[in-house]
């Protein structure tokens, strides 16, 4: 779609692009959503791809993912064999409601900052206990846990002019055992629910992440794998206004699916039959 209100595109932004932020600006990375709908309030686009941030950087502490890393690059990244949770990166890419053409342009950071309930990069980073590095227009930097970034449907903690620079996932999180479940109304449709359970090696704990069925990510922590009654109690304790409603499912439907799939995840982790 043509954006007929845009009067300028900044092709060579400064290394700290937020310092030149003005009302009516928008960050341009993949642009797959930006160009998909009218943007009447925008006047200028700032092209972040010109900064050439390294897409994926493995370190001694884990993995750094640039906000401008494309879905294609994330999917193709060869993770170390002992990162047992790394398959979740590929599974999350496969959860996109998009074609391979969109994969070539859409970015990890763009999906996170859109902050939609079905954003699979949100699911992935919350389940793997990631941290986000945010750059403010005044040059300051702050770090936010992935769990706390999205506050509701299409809402997050970003202030005007603030930018997501990178996502960091620790090696400890990447070495956890994982199991996941996802439900869609059609084979390639938008996620109705997307659940991920992770567990420390040699332990019986559980971190259960619930997304897509809720307006913001929900994480439930258990010291040991819960029985059905305890698991359902925690799921039923999620506030009613957090469950999401759209044509893909009612809140009651999503709660029911969450109970069902959470029990399956617990059984899978107990049996050690991991995807």
TrEMBL record:
SUPFAM superfamilies, sorted: FAD-binding/transporter-associated domain-like
Taxonomic path: Bacteria, Bacillati, Actinomycetota, Actinomycetes, Kitasatosporales
Domain FAD-binding PCMH-type, first and last residues per copy: 1-174
GO MF: FAD binding; oxidoreductase activity
Matches recorded under PANTHER family: XANTHINE DEHYDROGENASE FAD-BINDING SUBUNIT XDHB-RELATED, XANTHINE DEHYDROGENASE SUBUNIT C-RELATED
A Pfam family of this chain: FAD_binding_5
Name under which the protein is recorded: FAD-binding molybdopterin dehydrogenase
């Amino acid at each position: 779609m043509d954006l007929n209100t845009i009067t300028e595109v900044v092709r060579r932004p400064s290394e700290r692009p937020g310092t030149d932020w003005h009302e009516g600006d928008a960050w341009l990375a993949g642009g797959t959503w930006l160009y998909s709908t009218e943007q009447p309030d925008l006047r200028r686009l700032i092209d972040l791809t010109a900064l050439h941030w390294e897409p994926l950087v493995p370190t001694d502490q884990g993995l750094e993912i640039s906000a401008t890393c494309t879905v294609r690059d994330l999917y193709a990244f060869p993770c170390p064999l002992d990162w047992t949770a790394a398959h979740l990166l590929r599974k999350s890419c496969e959860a996109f409601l998009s074609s391979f053409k969109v994969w070539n342009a859409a970015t990890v950071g763009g999906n996170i900052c859109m902050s939609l309930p079905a954003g699979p990069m949100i699911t992935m980073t919350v389940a793997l206990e990631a941290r986000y590095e945010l750059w403010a227009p005044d040059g300051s930097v702050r770090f936010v846990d992935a769990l706390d970034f999205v506050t509701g449907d299409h809402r997050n903690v970003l202030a005007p002019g603030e930018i997501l620079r990178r996502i960091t996932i620790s090696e400890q999180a990447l070495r956890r055992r994982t199991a996941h479940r996802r439900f869609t109304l059609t084979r390639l449709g938008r996620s109705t629910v997307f659940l991920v359970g992770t567990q420390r090696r040699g332990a019986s704990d559980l971190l259960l992440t619930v997304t897509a069925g809720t307006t913001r990510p929900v994480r439930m922590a258990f010291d040991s794998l819960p029985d059905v009654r305890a698991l359902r109690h925690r799921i039923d304790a999620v506030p009613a206004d957090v469950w999401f409603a759209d044509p893909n499912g009612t809140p009651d439907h999503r709660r029911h699916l969450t109970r069902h799939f959470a029990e399956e995840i617990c059984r899978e982790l107990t049996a050690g039959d991991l995807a």
